[in-house]
Specification:
Belongs to the YkuD family. The protein is an alpha+beta fold. The chain has 3 helices and 15 strands.
Length: about 210
């Protein structure tokens, strides 16, 4: 009887896992980009066929000496890796800083915020005076540039000013369009937010 219950539980678990996954060729995808209700907001569905396959959330083989829980950002390839045990990583497509706004280095996740307020830096307001109306902060929401979640990156010098965050502009993933922050699709930043711990190491490579 116990054996039968165990087998049933295993089948139910596998079914639940596969319900949120799909395969394409030899690639195992874990992503679902359907509409999501979150904290009173409804995140619109993203047309999966318009997301290049390499930028969809997926588990990949990844050899590294870094500990599980570390985040490695490959700005050249436009990938973010969340290191998992057993030589695996969850890989996400990202958008990165445009020319003149690139950066690299090591930081830590100092804070995590759900549906964060966005406050444009003074330098950004000087470049784009129309953003002055948000100098005291833009309220959370579907149009907020930080999207559904934000991870705030600090180093030994304090706040780097850079974030790993969601974006409503999902079409910018795979491109260099930001002011240095790491952009992710809202569905993906929610997934990463649940995995990444405050204090986690973040390595940004160029």
């Amino acid at each position: 009887m116990k054996s039968r219950i165990s087998r049933l539980a295993s089948v139910m678990f596998i079914g639940a896992v596969l319900a949120g996954c799909s395969t394409f060729g030899n690639t195992f995808y874990t992503a679902s980009y359907t509409s999501v209700s979150d904290a009173g907001y409804v995140i619109p569905a993203i047309p999966t066929e318009k997301i290049p396959p390499q930028y969809r959330r997926q588990i990949v083989n990844y050899a590294t000496n870094e500990a599980p829980g570390t985040i490695i950002v490959d700005t050249k390839s436009k990938f973010l890796y969340f290191i998992m045990p057993g030589g695996k990583a969850m890989r996400y497509g990202i958008g990165v800083g445009r020319e003149g706004f690139e950066w690299s280095g090591t930081a830590r996740i100092a804070m995590k915020r759900e549906w964060p307020t966005w406050t444009p830096p003074a330098a950004m307001i000087r470049r784009q005076p129309e953003l002055a109306k948000y100098r005291n902060g833009m309220s959370p929401g579907l149009k907020n540039p930080l999207g559904a979640r934000a991870l705030y990156l600090f180093n030994k010098g304090g706040d780097t000013g850079y974030r790993i965050h969601g974006t409503p502009e999902w079409w910018s993933i795979g491109k260099a369009m930001s002011s240095g922050c790491i952009r992710m699709m809202n569905h993906d930043i929610i997934d990463l937010y649940e995995r990444a711990e405050q204090g986690a190491k973040v390595i940004v490579q160029q």
